[in-house]
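Hi, here's the filled form for the chain we discussed.

Project: internal
Contact: R.S.
Residues: 234
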Amino acid sequence: MAKLTWDAAADRIYETGVDRVVIFPMSGTAETDSDYAKGVAWNGVTGITESPEGADANDIYADNMKYLSLISVENWKATIKAYTWPTEFNACQGEFEFNNGTARGLFFGQQPHTKFGLAWRTIVGNAVKGDSYGYKLHVAYGLTAAPSEKDHATVNDSPEATEFSWELNSVPDAFVTQNTLAPVSHIVVDSTMNATGYAALEAALFGTDESAQGEGDDTDPYLPTPDALYTLVS
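And the returned structure, exactly as it came back:
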């Protein structure tokens, strides 16, 4: 084994940014291989903060000593901040839109919150290639959204756009074929480690525009199940 080295330029890796956010509301009817409707672009997202809970140590004592340490289940949570949201997210934040085919724009709050999936991209950079080094695709399942307070202020000489936020909680999706893995809420694919799998997952999550290039039919963005995602990127 060669001697260890530190701080090589290619190894000075960092992660930054958030873009290409896609929401997949729970459809109730299987349009693809999952229970989620086709993806919708979410514009105006300013940040996604992951804040998992759990995985705490519960120490057990016996024979006058520390006998073992049990680890609690981890719960994936996050906060998403944005200046706006797609119409499809209304049901996810408990707003029902009255729509009789002609009249729209009437919303009733405090309604049931539809579950949804979420996908987004972060930039992976290093000291050699900067922000062009690669990306990570994040996929989250079984989410529910709780809106935070909305602060509306008067227009003044220092105007600011209102930034909204939602607390996200998750219920993990179980694997079927890959039953050696525990149910999962959050999956990440790194293009710097798996370029082929990353490209395949990006095509699934963002859709394709093959007809414009004369290479085939377009495909709508969809959220693969954990099993389908595993197969897609393997």
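Let me know if anything looks off before we file it.
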